[in-house]
Amino acid sequence: MNTTVYAIPILALVSLAACNRAASGPAEASAPAAPSDPMEIKADPRLLARIRTALVGAEEVGGSITVAGRVATDDTRATRIGTPVMSRISALSAREGDEVKRGQLLALLISTGLSEAQLGFLKAFSQKQLAQGALDRANILMKADVIGSAELQRREAELAGASAESDAARDQLQLLGMAPESIDELRRTRTMNSLSRVVASMDGTVMDRKVNIGQVVQPADTIYEIADLSHVWLVADVPEQNAGNLSAGQPAEARIEALPGHVIDGTLAFVSPTVNPETRTIMVRMNLPNPDRRFKPAMLATMVLREHTQKRLVVPASAVVREGNEECLLIERAPGMFRLQPVKLGAEVGGRRILLEGAGLSERIVVDGAFHLNNERRRRAVRGGEGG
User: In this structure, is residue 2 part of a structural domain?
Assistant: First the structure.
């Protein structure tokens, strides 16, 4: 009788345990097992439907550098105009923005230095005339056998010296701005004029006028700045650390902020051989035709310098996820099994990132849905850690 009494509770306990296992078994089977490696995730069908994978490939790509630039005048097509002697401004006939032609009158100066040069020319020319008259008389006397050949040669030498001095004085007047016809008039009339002409030395646009009427100018002073704006430069300063591979002929692209939608394609015409020690930058420039004058000096621009293309491993930018301070890819190690792999990436080119280290050619990676897959990996890793 005692055996029967103890058997009933034991059977009841066994039956209750079996029921509990039956009730809990399906729920536990439906939950994914905690991963042994928190960097890995086994994707269920629901996750696999949200992602897309592709192989790492190699393409011809080139990096790019974006720098701020500006429009500048072409220094080979610009000039500064001054005066060779101290003068006072008497009249100005051109102002900033005017188009001028070579030889056009820009200003009149009153110069005592010019008066002195004119006086020197008149004296030199008079000495030349006297020497010429002496030589003419010597020729007559030589024919009459009054003087010898030595005297004739002496007078010929005197004329040569006087002629050289006269020519030098004439050149000096031309350097001071006197036109050839004005010098001839001075020679004929022997009337000095202290007005000096300042004329344009090239066709172009007056960029700046540095003086006003009545101002005294020195030989080192600039009166006008003139530039030919039919051709300008696009100039940029590239940080030293980004300029190691730059070279003339390298493809470049520029956008002028004042001209939205206008893209300029070209090549670098010049890369400075030196580094600016103050800014630690290297100056580069593009040549830019400007026949309609739409590009104006000092306009701001953005310049994109493209490196020469080479074959590199690339991955879509959408495949990259961040984990802490690292950039990573989700690499498929087995069907449905993915591992988060830290990688080293280069610049982005056309929606692709250059792959430097961390993955190899033809490895399969998640290219769409990487963000969601990585979030699920984190969630499972946290839940697995709490369960442990």
Answer: no
